[in-house]
Amino acid sequence: MSANFYYGIEVFLNGLMAGVMYSLVALGFVLIFKASGIFNYAQGVMALFAALCLVGFQSGQIPFSHVINATFGTDIHHFGWHMPAFFAIILTLMMMILFAFLVEKFLLKHLVNQEPIILFMATIGLAYFMEGFGDLMWGSDIKKLDVGIPQGGNIWLETNTAFLGGPDFYGFYIDNLDIWATIFAAILVIALILFSQYTKTGRALRAVADDHQAALSVGISLRTIWVIVWSIAGFVALVAGIMWGSKSGVQFSLSLIALKALPVLMLGGFTSIPGAIIGGLIIGVGEKMFEFLIGAPFLGGATENWFAYMLALLFLVFRPQGLFGEKIIERV
Amino acid sequence: MLYREAGDFKTTYAKDQQTFPIAFDRWGYFIMLALAFIVGPMIINDYWLNAVVLPFLIYAIAALGLNILTGYCGQVSLGTGGFMAVGAYASYKLMTSFPDLSIIIVVLLSGGVTALVGILFGLPSLRIKGFYLAVATLAAQFFLVWLFNKVPWFYNYSASGQISAPERSVFGYAISGANALPHVSYLFCLSFVVVLAWGARNLTRGANGRKWMAIRDMDIAAEIIGVDPLKTKLTAFAVSSFYIGISGALLFAVYLGAAEVGEAFGITKSFLVLFMIIIGGLGSIFGSFAGAAFMVLMPVLLKNIFVGQMGWPTDLAAHMEFVIVGGLIMLFLILEPHGLAALWRTAKEKLRLWPFPH
């Protein structure tokens, strides 16, 4: 077999790993969309915000120090401690729960019964707000996130697959971080499924997703459910933020992963958790393979920006509700 | 007292259906136009033109276009930036390939090219609806920006990958390029705005507009009463893209002068124009203008306050601007989901009764 063929397999594997990362973000979208019918554009920014908080807590940064310095002419920036990753994660999680509570109280509560498009636009507003708020709180410089997940190529895999190819093949290169992300994603999905199938709250969540009014009529509090769902989405965002943040640093561009997750959602369907996972894998592999086989040699590269969208677009023309989405029934 | 129809008798159907049925409104509109055309050029200077007036006029055209598609026809589009880029690059190619062509024709033709591209990307809207369509239009955004970045033919193989507008003039006055005078480019853009707004108003209240609104309100019901969804949706995409293309061409040729596609026509542009029509009011011509004015003026104002008055560094001020823009959008949606146009309508209703509310 030629080295090129093995390189293709490596691209394929890396595509799968990238797909898992997309799925992590897409999961948060699906959770909120199912429970409240809101297409939450702010999911990517939530990941950014969670990662910013995590880094901030870990390194003991003083919140809003830039603003305080600019207004009062002081010069403060750090508390001067280093918090263990575990406590920082717990603190960040509490932040995200608080955030979910505030979003429900100040935004969603007032927008009940509005058209979906209005809600969507409100989440765009929320995304802008949080982007600016996160930067005001923690500063906009690129930060390094390290919670102890191993990084760099996996040596074991590399040395043990080197025998496959010829002398110029050194084995498959796969980042340790991606492997861990896959493991975490798997745990997360299993936990979510168990939670929604076997707990009382989970059953309430599914009831709300099924029919708002019927759920209300049997005494499920919509507002509590929304806080819970947004908290879970915040938790998923935190996991995504940790993974993406460790990979490429915590900075503004982290919020753009939302744009990567959108085609995944279209492909998998807005309402399906398995759809988010499988859609993510298809998109991840598809765009990496397209770039490798057609994009880079023939089209000048950087096709990853749009390929996922085009794939999803073509796919939707044939199946408008996505791979696993609920069949759209229209009535007059 | 002045603001009511009482005593203003209409004797023809045309008069009954005019855009401004109240005499006060009508005269106000004509006076505004006269001021804009006669007094405007006299007092305009470089700072106001570049900071406020030109962006307002150009974005108003884009907002009109997007409002036709989203507000009147109900098809949410996030591809505005990409379509503006088509307009800009079409005008660049036309200007450099046909140096003798008048810039007015160039701008109109760029709109036409964008309309064709818009129809192409509008085709999936027949199958894909709602959020799926909104996300699908992002395909147009990313693909078009990538295309203009990667294919050197579009930027005439220039080393920097930028396009820059050559000097073109109308009636001997430079419109684009370094020698353009502020009042000339102001009048040039203003004329386009007035004509296009007049066109939009009349399109949306005619048969076409009614079909668009029928599709928006319930597409299946519209289809049953005989509205052809294919034609209706595609005309909405075409007209909307025509407007957006013209605004892209003007933005590039008159306002920016030189542009790099990822920076000038990125996805932030799409969101900016979308915010304009939300804040202004979906499905309203006045709303497009109000929203454009709001979104252009507010950053200037905020920058003056934070950087000018409070002495903050510019990056902090930019973050604060994000917070305020985001907060205002949420606030608007909560308090008045139908935007500034609805506020204006309520004010007018109140004014009609004032000062005797019974």
Question: What do these coordinates show?
Answer:
The complex is a heterodimer of chains A (332) and B (358). In chain A, 70% of the residues lie in helices and 0% in strands. Chain A is an all-alpha fold. Chain A has one domain (3-318). The termini of chain A are far apart. The model of chain A has no long low-confidence stretch (mean pLDDT 82). Chain B has a domain at 44-265. Chain B has 15 helices and four strands. Chain B has helices at residues 13-16, 23-43, 46-72, 80-97, 103-122, 130-150, 182-205, 207-217, 219-224, 229-256, 261-264, 267-280, 285-309, 314-335, 339-353, and strands spanning 163-164, 169-170, 173-174, 258-259. In chain B, strand 2 and strand 3 form a beta hairpin. The longest helix of chain B has 28 residues, at 229-256. Classes of the chains: A mainly alpha (332), B mainly alpha (358).
SSE layout and pairing:
The complex is a heterodimer of chains A (332) and B (358).
Chain A: H1 3-36, H2 43-59, H3 65-72, H4 85-106, H5 116-138, H6 155-161, H7 176-198, H8 200-210, H9 212-217, H10 222-248, H11 257-268, H12 273-299, H13 304-318
Chain B: H1 13-16, H2 23-43, H3 46-72, H4 80-97, H5 103-122, H6 130-150, E1 163-164, E2 169-170, E3 173-174, H7 182-205, H8 207-217, H9 219-224, H10 229-256, E4 258-259, H11 261-264, H12 267-280, H13 285-309, H14 314-335, H15 339-353
Antiparallel strand pairs in B: 1-4, 2-3
